[in-house]
Amino acid sequence: MSLRFTHETLPQRVVFGPAADHLAAEVARFGERPVVFGGAAPDLLPGAPRHRDVIMHVPVEAAARARAFAAANDADVLVSIGGGSSTGLAKAVALTSGLPIVAVPTTYAGSEATNVWGLTENGRKTTGADDRVLPRTIVYDAELTLSLPVGLSVASGLNALAHCVDSMWAPRADPINQALAVEGVRALSGGLPAIVRKPGDLQGRELTLYGAHLAAVAFASAGSGLHHKICHVLGGMFNLPHAQTHAVVLPYVMELNAPGIPDRLADAFGPGGLARLRAEVDAPRALRDHGFREGDIPAAAAAILAVVPAGNPVPVTTDNLTDLLRRAWAGEEPR
Ligand code: NAD
Questions:
Q1: Which member of 49, 101, 144, 268 has the lowest number of beta carbons within 10 Å of its beta carbon?
Q2: Which superfamily does 150-330 belong to?
Q3: Which ranges carry the Alcohol dehydrogenase iron-type/glycerol dehydrogenase GldA domain (predicted)?
Q4: pLDDT digits (tens, 9 = 90+) for 111-164
Q5: Which atom of ligand 1 is nearest to the CA of 105?
Q6: Minimal-distance CA residue to ligand 1 atom 4
């Protein structure tokens, strides 16, 4: 790659450590009247009003209720505690109010490190980028992820891994976001098997959370590559589950884009590569197990073909896309 590029780094404070020790002080940097967005997470800011009405993909009606809740409590800082859905709800409030967000993630989705918001209306999801929704501070406390079941941890962690891999050929890929992505792969390839071996152990959780952060920073900077375009179409047209779809599709995109995989990314996976990792964590294997039907392949291929990012390392055609989708549908052994 030529060393001529323009890279933008998003301004954010990142704290790794127990939320019980750090959160109150981080919130106090921005305001005195926090409101909390989060469903099941522990009460980390006693006394702060809490909005529990969190729905995946942020329906516009849920966003309106959250905005009314923040206004009714005269909030001057928004605190999200939970997965990507809780972060997404706080982002919807920040988008119209400009209030700062302090994010405490409890999954590996990574929304806390991006300036991307999403809203769903009449079943259609709209996304956009706006710096007002970028959380000002993230507090990463691995202890809070201990309650995330192993299956969800694996799917969520493989979703983070896909952020790293797609950063290699995404539209704004550059040597800086690629370096973050490679280190993200290294951390996730070590952390995820450790979670599966010892789900109650903090070490694997910490490593995975660190990897998930790097993955999200890389992705926010590099943009959506072929993998994310495929998963976005599959999720939107056929209502397939977010994290599992990413987990199944990733090896087939790597197969197609093999000529674009730099040696340092392959090295970061360690011996056995992605195949070894997928076997160790018993990754989701076939789209047909998650609601995708063989008869949907032609429509999916046509929709994906229309949004293939420029600069993908391999030309994408109806034929190779159809083959990719058929193999992912069946769960055939990736090459
Ligand atoms: P989620 O937030 O919906 O959480 C999944 C489930 O896990 C929920 O039932 C939740 O209550 C539960 N959960 C969360 N943390 C837990 C914990 N520690 N212990 C036990 N249960 C826990 O799912 P997600 O995968 O984190 O986020 C998905 C959403 O985030 C999607 O809407 C996706 O589009 C969005 N997202 C946005 C961005 C972005 O940059 N804007 C990035 C990634 C994901």
A1: 49
A2: Dehydroquinate synthase-like - alpha domain (1.20.1090.10)
A3: 11-141
A4: 999 999 999 888 778 889 999 999 999 999 999 999 999 999 999 999 999 999
A5: 15
A6: 83
